[in-house]
């Protein structure tokens, strides 16, 4: 190999350098001499980024220092590396490494006078027969309780939680992994790389990882790990007694004998300290409303629509429930037709959504997968008398949702392959034939079955809450009628936007009718950090209507935090009835306070009074909800106005009352969606503008409540089932009102849904 890693065992190279090569000192590297059988050894003191020359050739420049002649005025030389060798070296060479170079061409250096290095440089490439030997360094590993902000470290850890790689908002893949070790400290690492194979190959909780050159930073009082230049990883099976074989896509890595002992010790520790709850992993054991991981083989796949993709998989066992078959055109289904036919009673259709679609498209048929956090749901919305079990991999990465590709060397894959080869396909088909006869006997003839399907498909999935006197109007009539008017209609939801449901939540000002995006936590944290620069004004502490306490944090920043407890009748109240005002707190600290106290208001000191932060930040936090004010319509008043609420007989500390006395025009959380409705006579785009009535879910709580997010997702899947043909979609009954929008150049009619709610039994 042109680039090799050399291990040192008992003071000698484990793999000796070719015997015909002789060491050459730096001072003897001169033009006009034969260096064919010579090598130069030095330490990397500088390594430039890998670049490309104008012709597209990879190029890497490294500076080696002669360790045998450190006292000389010139003791370093430039190494110019070209082609694939440059690419390989960039992956392994690091500052401080010892390298041996041979098979080089010596040439005059045009930069010697400028950089003060040797008059010549060494040119190397694989084509020229060059070789580079990198001496594997002795790495030092840091335990998780000794990590410090701003350092780059090497570490070992046991996987407590992970998210399989997914496509980030940019072009990179991202993976999140939480590690623990015997120090009982937890570290969450966020890893990015444009190459999927470069991320850790983690398959399950309990795996052991080795991270080299991971950057540590402190965020909200906790250490976090992020990828840095030169980041590399190895993953090992965490099972006690399993072979210690590293998983990595890199062909060049070091692994010392003493590291094997570290892994064995971590395995034993994890076996007694890490709780690994294995979800159901066989199709024969699944039930409705279950989230589980599945190890399986991919035998078919197909595009369903822009936001969902079908995977046909099997694990050799048979699901105990009738399963939903996603309707797709035969020409769109990839897979060996004969095999799909043979396995038709053992495969299940898994519908994957959103961020998982890109990875699902790239999967190779026949590959072995581990699909994490599959959701099963029993449904009969397609008109069948017998409900069928649906399998969904929802969008997002909550609870570790994702898809992992397992190599055939994986022990679980070996076990699965052996089992699949033993499956009696003929026997499973006979069993299915018997169950089909039983099902067909439910109806006396085909006509009865068709009538039954029609009746089920006509059941509405929405409820009208008013205006029962209105009759249904066809969409064609609505589209040809002037606005404004109100209508009752019966239609099907063909599509909706946004497909990523969390994007439907906006902030609305009822006064100026403006809409804005909900700020994310990082924006709020940035504002808090800015306000913490100014220390609290102690002259404003402990007034007639609030008591104050202040302390200094013990970290390097020595941050001062002040908390002002609002009193009632000159007395402090119970925490669940108390409003706090906080100065200098971090986002994490404020969230902790909201879990214990009624309300929290972030403030800062001025010379004369406390005041609210910029209205880009919430003016109030209550429970998990952040309350924002409209910048355009608000006229903030002094904080001391809160004393009027504190003086009430029973202060309620309601957000609307707090906003009023502080001169804030509150923004309300609202769902904004566009529904495309069809009824056979036409298609109409109707807007949903709803605070909580339609979904029976408060828009203010959806972003912080995973259960409500799943409920909304399941609701939309019921209203507009993915993968269904138009004829199979359920009917919606709703009220819409038309209204005119005019400007200087055009006039348009818009439609809005109102007085309609989702039926309680839809989800």
UniProtKB/TrEMBL annotation:
Keywords: Chromosome, DNA-binding, Nucleus, Telomere. InterPro entries: NA-bd_OB-fold, POT1, POT1_C_insert, POT1PC, Telomer_end-bd_POT1/Cdc13. It is found in: Chromosome, Telomere; Nucleus. Its main location: nucleus. Pfam families: POT1, POT1_C_insert, POT1PC. GO terms for molecular function: G-rich strand telomeric DNA binding; telomerase inhibitor activity. GO terms for biological process: regulation of telomere maintenance via telomerase; telomere capping. GO terms for cellular component: nuclear telomere cap complex; nucleoplasm. SUPFAM superfamilies: Nucleic acid-binding proteins. The keyword Transcription regulation does not apply. Residues 141-271 form the Telomeric single stranded DNA binding POT1/Cdc13 domain. Belongs to the telombin family. This is Protection of telomeres protein 1.
